[in-house]
Amino acid sequence: MATWEVRLRASLQVAPGGEPDGPGARTALDLSSAFGVWVVPVRNGWGQSRVWRVRFAGLALAMAALLASCRREVETPPLEIRPVRTVTVGKRDAAVPVTLTGTIRAQDEAPLAFRLSGRMIDRRVNLGDRVRPGQLVAQLEPQNEQNALRSARANLAAAQGQLVNARASLQRREPLAARGAVSLAELDQARESFQTAQAQVDSAAAQVKFAQDQLSFTELRTNAAGVITAVGAEPGEVVAAGRMVVTLAREGGRDAIFDVPGQLVRSAPRDTPVTVSPIDDPGVTTTGRIREVAPQADPVTRTFEVRVGLTDPPAAMRLGATVVGRIALASEAIIDVPATALVTSNQQPAVWVVDPATSTVSLRAIDVLRFEPDAVVVSQGLAPGDIVVTAGVQALYPGQKVRLLDSSG
Question: At the topology level of CATH, where does 142-217 sit?
Answer without folding.
Answer: Helix Hairpins (1.10.287)
